[in-house]
Amino acid sequence: MDDLDPILSTRPQALEDMSVDELKARITALQAEIEACEREIGKKEAHKSAADALFGGRG
């Protein structure tokens, strides 16, 4: 497992048990994860558009 791989948990964290600093760190980590997801969506959409253009797909 790569150090950059997200750590996915099926167990929700008890936010009320976290300190302000822990909550801020969590927000930062979640924002980074969202940005990574958005970049990946952009790549996939670009690939799909290119394939549709090449093969006449309907998007």
Summary tags:
mainly alpha; rod-shaped
In short:
The chain has one helix spanning 20-55.
SS field, number of helical segments: 1
| Molecular shape | rod-shaped
User: Which sequence of SSEs, written as H and E, runs from N to C?
Assistant: H
Radius of gyration: 18 Å
Structural class: mainly alpha
Uncertain residue segments: none
Proportion of beta-strand residues: under 5%
Distance between the termini: 34 Å
Helix content: 55-70%
Mean pLDDT, all residues: 87
Number of strand segments:
0
Major sheet characteristics: none
Write a structural description.
There is one protein chain. This protein is mainly α and 59 residues long. Helix content is 61%, strand content 0%. The longest helix has 36 residues, at 20-55. It is rod-shaped and about 55 Å long.
Helix and strand topology:
Blueprint (H helix, E strand, L loop, with lengths): L19 H36 L4
